[in-house]
Specification:
The chain is an alpha/beta fold. The protein folds into three domains: 125 residues, Rossmann fold (3-Layer(aba) Sandwich), CATH 3.40.50.12160; 239 residues, tm_1862 like domain (pyruvate-formate lyase- activating enzyme), CATH 3.80.30; 54 residues, Beta Barrel (OB fold (Dihydrolipoamide Acetyltransferase, E2P)). Helices cover 33% and strands 22% of the residues. The chain is built from 14 helices and 19 strands. About 1% of the residues have low confidence. Bound molecules: S-adenosyl-L-homocysteine (SAH), iron/sulfur cluster (SF4) and FE3-S4 cluster.
């Protein structure tokens, strides 16, 4: 009889990809995914620790799951991801009904840990080892022999190209929750991309916390492969239609990578380049290792290489010591670059980070006001950018269709809503004339008539 698996995933795309891999690994042990915890035999909470009160959120969710164990004695509860890595067995002290705690680099061990738990060999399994000699297993080989998933194949997938981060930005938990940076061998990445394309995937996003330093920390000896080389290699896999990547630290953004935007057709003109602050004083305290000026130079070079490029960023407001003047430099940077969109956050202290001990913490009310000011201006700028697409024709890759309404994405990563006039399929690319622009999406009419689905 099939066993039921429910996974709740928080955090970044890396966690999403990890959840997918775990789902596939567990499918071999007879687990099928369900969309709620009520009927589950195994609940996994894949956690994120990047901001705010991540730990409290996890404990409160676990508290909600606890009663289910009383109703179903077979139910196992596991905590994985960055909070699991950070808290380890502390989780079981506060939530004794948790059976499994698995750190970010041990997810491939989940099936064997579960076998021991279910077989009654152990009553609890914890592994948060962050091995220094860790290599990302070629998971596609682990999965060999598995029958194709009965779930509809998605046409967009993430591929993790590196783990961890060596940058130690002073506010960031990632180096402690994901460990040292390590790149996957090119051959494994290309194999995974090839398998995904054979399964019907058309768009790949390469994932890493700092993809620009890909290849500098490679376990097999191909240090000569830069991220730009990897992009060219992946773009050469037959059948791939769109290629994206995330995230990039501006300090490592090379000319070679900027040139890729001019050279690689299928590399989408959309770049997420987190700047965090417009003030050099704050950037220095953040340990970002670039200046406002060098960031602006790179933005200019990117726009030269690919004039239609849509730039997005991340901003932290209220970093310790951020004065009104520092914040006005962030606002001024927004006016200068005019990002298409941004993710902006109030600074929060995180465990094991240097900035948690910095003086001059900014009061919550000031952080809130700065965040609102930034977001209000960003919304106006996003709307102004979106309006420039009205009356243009965009190639839109369809993501979903329901009741005659289609939703898709432009190469620049703008969401487009348009009427589905004839049986469109997810993954299909059609021409859409843009008719209206909103702050967060565009609307249009489909021009393509010979849809393939
Ligand atoms: N690797 C990426 C960032 C990953 S974390 C980079 O180097 O840019 C995603 C975003 O969360 C960061 O860009 C930052 O804006 C935000 N963030 C990280 N730590 C934070 C903290 N302590 N407080 C508030 N925001 C934070
Ligand atoms: Fe965190 Fe900085 Fe690494 Fe990004 S580059 S993951 S912000 S330490
Ligand atoms: Fe969160 Fe860990 Fe990703 S802290 S942002 S899930 S790397």
């Amino acid at each position: 009889m099939a066993k039921h698996l429910y996974i709740k995933t928080f955090g970044c795309q890396m966690n999403e990809r990890d959840s997918e891999i775990i789902e596939q690994l567990l499918a071999r042990s007879g687990y099928v995914l369900v969309d709620g915890p009520e009927t589950a035999d195994l609940v996994l909470v894949n956690t994120c620790s990047i901001r705010d009160k991540a730990e409290q959120k996890v404990y409160s969710l676990l508290g909600q799951l606890a009663p289910l164990k009383k109703e179903n004695s077979r139910l196992k509860i596991g905590v994985i991801g960055c909070v699991a890595q950070q808290e380890g067995e502390k989780i079981c002290k506060r939530a004794p009904y948790v059976d499994l705690v698995v750190g970010t680099q041990q997810i491939y061990r989940i099936p064997s840990m579960l076998d021991r738990l279910v077989g009654g060999e152990t009553s609890r399994e914890i592994d948060t080892d962050l091995k220094s000699s860790f290599t990302i297993p070629a998971f596609q080989r682990l999965l060999k022999g598995q029958s194709p998933s009965p779930a509809p194949v998605e046409f967009r997938k993430f591929v993790t190209i590196m783990q961890g981060c060596n940058n130690y930005c002073s506010y960031c938990v990632v180096p402690s929750t994901r460990g040292r940076e390590i790149s996957r061998p090119v051959v494994d990445i290309l194999e995974e991309v090839g398998i995904l394309i054979d399964q019907g995937v058309k768009e790949i996003t390469l994932l890493g916390q700092n993809v620009n330093s890909y290849g500098q920390t490679n376990p097999v000896d191909d240090h000569s492969v830069s991220f730009a080389d990897l992009l060219h290699a992946v773009a050469g896999v037959p059948g791939l239609e769109r290629l994206r990547f995330t995230t990039s630290n501006p300090k490592d953004l090379s000319k070679e990578l900027i040139d890729c935007f001019a050279e690689i057709d299928i590399l989408c003109p959309h770049f997420h380049l987190p700047v965090q602050s417009g003030s050099n004083t704050i950037l220095q305290k953040m340990n970002r290792k670039y200046s406002r000026e060098s960031y602006l130079e790179k933005v200019a070079a990117l726009r030269m290489a690919r004039p239609d490029i849509a730039l997005a960023t991340d901003i932290i407001v209220g970093f310790p010591g951020e004065s009104d003047d520092d914040f006005s430099r962030t606002m001024d940077l927004l006016e200068t670059v005019r990002f298409h969109g941004s993710f902006s956050f109030k600074y929060s202290d995180r465990p094991n980070t240097r900035s948690a001990d910095f003086p001059d913490k900014v009061p919550e009310s000031v952080k809130k006001e700065r965040l609102q000011r930034f977001q209000a201006r960003q919304d106006q700028i996003s709307l102004e950018w979106n309006a420039t697409y009205v009356d243009t024709v965009q190639e839109v890759m369809v993501e979903s269709t329901t009741e005659g309404k289609a939703r898709g994405r432009t190469a620049t990563n703008h969401i487009v809503h348009f009427p589905d006039t004839g049986g469109l399929c997810p993954g299909e690319t059609v021409d859409v004339q843009i008719t209206h622009a909103g702050r967060h999406s565009l609307q249009g009419e489909m021009l393509t008539t010979d849809v393939t689905c």
